[in-house]
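User: I want to check something. If I give you two sequences, will you return the structure for each one separately, not as a complex?

Assistant: Yes, each is folded on its own. Here is the first sequence with its structure:
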Amino acid sequence: MCLLLSKDTCSRVATWRVRTIFGAMPAPVRVLLRLFLLALLTGLLFRGYLLLAHTAQWRDASTGHLLRAFVDRGLLFDAYVGAWLLVLPTLLLGLRHLLGSNARWPVVVARACFTLLFLVVLFLACADVPFYAYTNMRLTDMALSTAQTVQQSLKELVSTPPYLLALGAFAALAFMAVRLIKRAFAPCLAPAPTAPLARRALTFVGLVLLVGTGVRGTLDPRDAPLLPEDAYFSDTPFLNQLATNAPYNFVASMATEHVAYLPASEALANVRRYLHLGAPRYTSPIARAVTYPAPAARRNVVLILVESLSAQRLQRFGYPKRLMPFLEGLMDSSLVFDRFYSAGTRTCNGIFSTLYGLPAVGAQHPLAHPTMTAQRFHGLPGTLRAAGYRTSFLYPGDPRFDNMLGFLPANGFQQFVAQDAFPASIPRNSWGVTDHALYTRTLAHLDSLHHAGAAPFFATVMTISSHKGYNVPDDLPGFAPTSTADDEDIYEYADRALATFFAAARRAPWYANTVFVLLGDHGQRFDPLYEVPLAYHHVPLVVHAPGLAVPGTVHGWGTQADVPATVLGLLRQPHVDNTLGLDLLQRTHPLAYFCSDERLCALNDSSYWIRTGEVERLFDHTHRSTVNAAAQRTADLHALRTYTMSMVQAAQWLVDEKLLGPPVLKEVGP
């Protein structure tokens, strides 16, 4: 028929037919359909932005995989979220329609509930934009770790441009969404004739069945509900993440804290074999007495955790520029562990694993999780304190951040210095005072400890100025960064502040008797070739101890959990080791393992293993391949999986059984 009409007339006819069909639908169906389409379009909008903002991560992907991630998998996850948003409106509007009621309150309540939930979804989608740019993964409950104090959260929000842009986008989109939702509910408030009971019942049952199917994420009742691993299908890691969405990922991450990879007995047996442990003599099955033939070296220890110190930003590891000349020069006269990896992607993971010798346990916050705060940990600060050391922790920011003030003084640290100890005249931003100010305060603190008595000290210093997005301070006389490239200038500043600290420390009376340990709390999202970028975990470990540690390079694998045993071994300090680490001066691991939120990762000389949910992928990282080689490299797959799962599962069991504090040091047998 349209062949006999003009294009404009055909268009009008098609529009009239759609309106006629749509208008013939019962009011609840029209409302719910509009709301569902709004949810789908919102998901497409943010997926499209993510796709355009990170073209380098999918440039070589096939068109088929791109369409499957964007449309097929993407719409499935968006429909799942949309269905959950419609559960309450479906029940309220459906029952109102079934009963033939014209009451306004079900409509008002349904609109208010949907609006509130949709705004939460919209907020999560906006927050996902800067979160992915920083972490290379979709939004998880990791974002809550910086929201422990309202003051810290607000400071970070107003001082970080990406967050401000995301907040502005949320405000604009929320304004439009509220208006659209109000219009979408209008048909239910308009007077309409009451349909026969049978038709109303059929409409109600149909709506419940459709929404019920949506909240399962599958049409087949025999299938399991939608799982995170349903998004994984491509050898291009970015597309697997593109397929899901922020609300789904955020909620799913909140349900994956307690790990259950292996039976505890199997994990502990494996761990005892990996650590070469003899017959158990302590309440903790991993505790072992460590002694040395020579007397202890009663040296001071200064452990510096450098914010976001990724090996990828050092020329020694292949970076084309020499951004940190002082640190690289220091490494030439120090003991360097070049295949060393952070336990997680958060500062709290770096602090906990480095000090207490345990890996990250999934997505658990090690300094704030209830199972962690309900017990005591011994580790490096507890061991050195028991040996007569005076222990201090110095942090440039809010002491409440990551629950540092609540956790660290209760677990081995006698003194805790934070931004409140700095004069108000010292410049600071949302993260705290600068590295230079922190190092200056550290020097004064160490001088006071030296003059106060003969006992050695153990001081941990956590820096901040190399945090992504940090503006380069101007408190170092004569310093000006040579690079204007994104994030390079902050590494130049961090290096100059470190050089200034060491220049002053070398003049101090305590310097010659001090062991300096430097490492990154974690790396940074450089070179996001894989879903979990290796640069986010590859950090240098540098031990500078003239006369005690022979300069050189240790090429074996290690992680932050090995720091306590390695430092105590260097000091020849007798102790009972109740960590999952090794003294890397004596023996290294066959691989490095770590957690990226809920994802498990491990790599050896040839393969890089990533496990998300039940999905496992294995890559040839030496050739930068993104092809899943799990089926071809079964030996590597089994070795990496078993070692990593055993270590993390053993840590979970030790935490659950509360066997990581001083009581585990008590012998239970001859």
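And separately, the second sequence with its own structure:
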Amino acid sequence: MKLPLQHLYKFGPFRLDTNAPLLWRSGEPVDLTPKALETLIVLVKSAGQLVRREDLIEAVWPDTVVEDNNLSVNISLLRKVLAENDEGKKYIETISRRGYRFNALVQDAPREGSETIDANHREAPALVETARKADAATTDSVVRAVPIAVLPFKYIAGQEREDYLRIGLCDTLITRLSNVRRFAVRPTSSVVRYGDGGTEPLLAGRELKVDYVVDGRIRRAGQTLRVTVQLLSVSEEVIYWANQFDQESTDVLQLEDLISEQIAGALLPKLTVGERERLAKRSTNNPEAFEAYLRGRYYLNSLTEDGFSKALADYELAVQLDPSYALAYTGIADYYYYLAIYGVLPPNTCLAASEIAARKAVELDPMLSEAHAALGFALAGRFNWTEGERHFVRALELSPNSALAHLRYGSLLCQQGLFEESLQHARRSIELDPVTPIFQFSLGWGLYYARRFDECLEQYRSMITAHPLNPMVYFGLAWVARYVGRHDEALAAIKRAVELSNESLMMTASCGQVYAAAGMREQAEGVLAQLEALPPEHCVTRYHLALIHHFLGSREKALCCLESAFEQRDLWLVWAAVEPVFDTLRTDPRFQLLLKRLGLDRPPNLSINFSTPPRR
């Protein structure tokens, strides 16, 4: 039996059935979520015309409050599926700050025999049902999430401080409450600055741009923990809810259960069944493993080599005590990724270990957003773009309000030339965490690669005012200033970055770039000699050496360093396809081969008019 014939649109190798709805490619059904299909239908029906973002959102999500990120994810997925049209252009073009345009000749098309759905052989409806289930998993992300901040707990005056416990309890409450998608909980990185108690909770809430603040006090009496918690309404400046909990210190898990459940119940009296299940879900049932994990998180957030080593010891103790502890494996994955960034060990060694730990975390708990975000980062760092993106998308499906997942997915999109979508994720991460510098830094980083240099300069200059002791802010300013020819500003910034970072290798190498860009050949060659003379255990990235040589005018040495960087699987190569400094290398066969080996030989949005760097 055949189902009734329905109308089709034809473009390239694709057929789009707007009634089913289904997308076919060369006679085979394509697996897309319903919302992605609806987005495509709107664009195809307006082929060749600008479709404003707000009109597209209204058409796909009528009468629903939805975040721009939902549309961005759909556009990214469609671009991956559609690739390029017959003219070598992306089917979906971004019109900066306005919307999108579908670039293809679209025709009405009769249904071909292979596209007739047989009721006895219906793979396509099965695909749609699978997609609908995936789409349904994220439906509660379209309503406005209530912004909340959980401040680090404080000890009653005169009591010995156990920082790992007071910050750890805050951290795990953040994780637990984040499982309710109707909450947008500020991450630990943005609230830890308030741990000294010097800022009034309501003032902290206003700085964090949240509606509610959770503030708590801890008193230890023998084996008993007495924790007093209050939920403050920032706008009304009143205590919205408060309670006191007495619990054996050996069962911090039970304490976490009680506090998170009552806070959620106070704000959302009618929790759904799914929300209750996610809220009640424990990462482990072993209190000792839980405390070890808390210590690991505390030490990892110190971002020091000593802290890293202590973090690994505690994470490994946690998985020894509970081999099924997925969140602890995620901590191990992040630990190794940080080592790759800081150059403590060779990048390929670090990223391989990070991937192994993250895969274990996903295997143990496929519903853990942090695990997918960690695995996506490790895979992208090893140039496995497709699988990495799949895990980033899954992380955002599971936790749409994760600032870190938005940041990491935005980085991948930027590395592939999808600048507009990347910047949307960067801005969303700042909305979710307006305080932590890394999210502000990443916005500036994305603006640089999108060739929006003036905006990038202003972003980093404003960050220096807010974060005058953060070396990465000066690093970012120097990075863009050395390219656009603001050499005095670049030199001042990079020297400050070197000083604040205790002369880290990354900052020293960047100083060499600034010298070379400014025409200070002797100083640049001195930095090169210094770095190349270091013993093998010092992991100097060849990518940074390539940039120095390129600024010095040595095309051959730059290419040799890039090829050497690939042999070392240098993490920095993820930026090679979009680095403005390398625009003059793009026609070189060796550089093209390098991009092909990286899987970046066809970056999606490098239609930018590459020209001589602007000089200011």
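Because they were folded independently, the notes below concern the second chain alone. The chain has a mean pLDDT of 82. Residues 347-364 form the longest helix (18 residues).
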